[in-house]
Design a protein that fits this description.
The complex is a heterodimer. By secondary structure, chain A is an alpha/beta fold. Chain A contains ten helices and twelve strands. In chain A, helix 4 links the parallel strand 3 and strand 4. Chain A starts with a helix and ends in a 10-residue tail after the last helix. The chains are: A alpha/beta, B mainly alpha.
Chain lengths: ~325, ~375
């Protein structure tokens, strides 16, 4: 009995002695970015849009030697995210991105303790007046409007369904824009919007999509990471899908028409330049169609009728030059 | 006789250590998964340990994480001892936190210590109400408490989302399109004292003190005796003149109260406002569920739950640190925690089996000559350990 216990204690000791070795990857002259994200880096939505953008910046800067990325994913517990942000800050990262509007209050607490570290968070416009906090947002209503125009033009039943998470942030902007675009195109189109109350409940998103389909919708859209469930339902029922945040075409190449993709590298590049010049925050950014932060990406495998595509391109142009004004519902 | 005492003592020590062995075994399985991901398990677990205990600050983080687990776990000790299964910790935390937060938002003119005490009390009351409803339904209508407590979680989440995005929303958020579901920040005076510069707050101490009080409640008071009696055998308790229904309500009431307090302390000690991502775990960090595991870890003993929740808190904090250092997918971290839970809960089976064997042994010893048994006892026990 004792010898077996001894073995256990030896294992325990081994585990304990291994502890000294868990150090950080150091690098001189490397720009080090840490990002804290509410969902997975492969969520095909909000988190992935940021991660993909970081990878793109990394490739432009010449790889990991010059631009190091470290991430914490699935940090949906605000308190855990705060711990991660603080831990990164103590490790001397050049830029720490808190990629979720729910992280703002944590950042407000942490950033003043690390004046030499740049922080960024979104989606928001609020830098809390802190000299080391950047804020960024995506004017998701712009691409939402374009998707709405497309959906209303392509829907045969005249019923369109939208699956949203919680009525907040870029999700609300996107959906308001979508509804506005659809109505502007066809005043008779019926747009059913359903906020399921969760960013993560994939099954509930599927159920919401099923309900939309049962109500006659033949074109669906939605935003946030749980929509993968809704895309599956759209695929099964042959309903069209209009994506946002990341390119979602790979999930259902037969039915995805277009995606509004967030290209955060526009924002990232400017922030990195400012940080290298000694400015650690105080600026807020917005991704728009105009600054190429938002890009309408069409599924090459889905052939859009030429007149509809033309209308979409025209809408994009109109939003950029200001001739198309998106009417959002007042608060 | 000396030898018998040693055997008994040693055997009990093994019992207490079983969850720790189970955790190590789970980490062993986790090491295989890490190897499959081409990550050196020693580096990964090293980071885990460093994240949980490597510095004063990491120990503080571990204790902060352990606080709600301990509080929820204490409530679980009470209800499970009374054979009432409370899975409503999440909802009870939320309701407690909502009530507590409202105190801080309403009484901005009152002295800080008074508001803190009032808020923690209201957290206690809020959780008790939420748990008590399920208790009442079970005691007087025979509704299964597992169902009601889980359903009450869902109701609490909706209530939270409604309040945090409606009447209780941060006024500065109400004007923005983002409308983050959070309340305004509490006044600085309303914060639980912290051990600067770490985030360790008074709530941990409160939880530890309460653990001793729950121990006294369960084993040194009539109320605790009754709850345990009903848990062991409701029919016998009824014959003994105990009001069984009342004990059931009380068990869930108290259980919920501790979860509610955990929610209140989370607001006043950690976040200084109530905030969520729209899910229950966004606010609770799943402490309402993990507290159950912590309590089982501690073998449903309030004092055992103290080290158990620290260990589990360390696992949670350490796993996050591990993800940051070796950059494994968060799914692995979740799997690792799941493994630990499965192993620990399974180890409880061994513990009970050993306990039964020990009881049987004791009975034989009573019947027979006392000094013949110890020799026979050890091989049987060795087998179980192996």
């Amino acid at each position: 009995m004792k010898s077996k216990l001894l073995v256990l204690f030896v294992i325990l000791a081994l585990v304990l002695t291994a502890c000294g070795s868990g150090g950080e990857k150091a690098g001189g002259g490397t720009f080090k970015v840490a990002v804290v994200m509410p969902s997975s880096i492969k969520d095909l939505a909000f988190s992935q849009s940021m991660y993909d953008a970081l990878l793109k910046v990394q490739a432009e800067k010449g790889g990991e030697a010059n631009f190091q990325i470290v991430y914490s994913e699935n940090m949906f517990v605000v308190d855990d995210a705060a711990a991660a942000i603080r831990d990164y800050a103590t490790q001397g990262f050049d830029l720490i991105i808190a990629h979720g509007s729910q992280y703002g209050s944590s950042l407000q607490e942490i950033a003043p303790d690390f004046p030499e570290t740049a922080f960024a968070w979104g989606t928001t416009v609020d830098t809390f007046g802190q000299p080391n906090i950047f804020a960024y947002e995506a004017r998701a209503e712009e691409g939402g409007y374009v998707n709405g125009v497309l959906a209303a033009s392509l829907s045969k039943s005249g019923v369109v369904g939208v699956v949203g998470p919680i009525e907040t942030g870029d999700a609300k902007l996107y959906i308001d824009g979508f509804v506005s675009g659809a109505r502007a195109t066809n005043p008779n189109v019926q747009v059913n919007v359903n906020y399921i109350g969760s960013f993560s409940d994939v099954a509930l998103a599927s159920e919401a999509a099923n309900t939309h389909v049962a109500a006659g919708a033949d074109a669906l859209s939605g935003t946030a990471q749980m929509v993968v469930g809704a895309i599956g339902v759209a695929k099964e029922n042959g309903a069209l899908w209009f994506g946002t945040q990341s390119a979602q075409t790979s999930l259902a190449p037969s039915i995805v028409v277009a995606n509004q993709v967030y290209h955060w590298e526009v924002v990232l590049n400017d922030m990195i330049k400012l940080i290298n010049d000694g400015t650690y925050g105080g600026k807020s950014y917005a991704l728009t169609l105009k600054n190429d932060g938002l890009v309408m990406e069409y599924n090459p495998d889905y052939s859009i009728p030429a007149d509809v595509k033309a209308k979409a391109d025209e809408t994009v142009k109109g939003i950029i030059d200001g001739s198309v004004v998106i009417m959002l519902p007042s608060k | 006789m000396q030898n018998i005492f040693k055997q008994e003592w040693f055997s009990r020590l093994i019992d207490v250590m079983l969850p720790v062995f189970a955790t190590l075994a789970a980490l062993g399985v986790g090491a295989v998964m890490l190897l499959l991901l081409k990550v050196n398990p020693f580096v990964a677990y090293g980071a885990m340990f460093e994240g949980a205990f490597g510095s004063g600050n990491s120990i503080a983080e571990t204790l902060v994480k352990a606080t709600p687990l301990l509080l929820v776990g204490l409530g679980i000790c009470i209800s499970f001892r009374g054979s009432v299964i409370n899975i409503g910790g999440e909802g009870q935390m939320i309701i407690g936190a909502l009530l507590a937060t409202q105190m801080g938002l309403m009484f901005t003119d009152l002295p800080g210590w008074f508001v803190i005490v009032l808020a923690l009390l209201m957290g206690f009351v809020g959780g008790a109400l939420w748990g008590g409803i399920a208790g009442y339904l079970k005691a007087y209508f025979g509704v299964n408490e597992i169902l009601t407590t889980v359903m009450m979680n869902a109701i609490a989440v909706q209530l939270m989302n409604f309040l945090l995005r409606g009447p209780m929303i941060d006024p500065s958020q109400a004007q923005l399109a983002s409308k983050i579901p959070q309340t305004a920040r509490l006044l600085d005076a309303f914060r639980l004292p912290r051990w600067m510069p770490t985030r360790l707050h008074l709530g941990f101490l409160i939880a530890v003190v309460l653990a001793f009080l729950v121990y006294i409640l369960l084993w040194r008071t009539t109320l605790g005796y009754r709850i345990r009696a009903v848990g062991k055998n409701p029919d016998a308790s009824r014959y003994a003149g105990i009001n069984v229904k009342r004990q059931i309500v009380l068990a869930l009431l108290l259980s919920g109260a501790f979860a509610g307090l955990a929610g209140a302390i989370q607001v006043y000690g950690v976040n200084y406002r109530m905030i969520t991502d729209g899910s229950a775990s966004g606010f609770t960090g799943s402490a309402g569920f993990n507290g159950i595991v912590a309590a089982l870890f501690g073998q449903l003993h309030p004092l055992g739950t103290i080290p158990a929740s620290i260990l589990f808190g360390a696992l949670l904090v350490g796993a996050n640190k591990m993800q940051r250092v070796v950059q494994v997918p968060s799914a692995l971290v979740i799997a690792l925690n799941g493994l630990v839970v499965v192993f620990v809960v399974s180890s409880d089976y061994w513990r009970r089996k050993r306990q039964r064997r020990r009881l049987a042994q004791a009975r034989i010893e009573e019947d027979d000559e006392p000094d013949e048994e110890p020799g026979a006892a050890s091989p049987a026990q060795t087998e179980v350990v192996a």
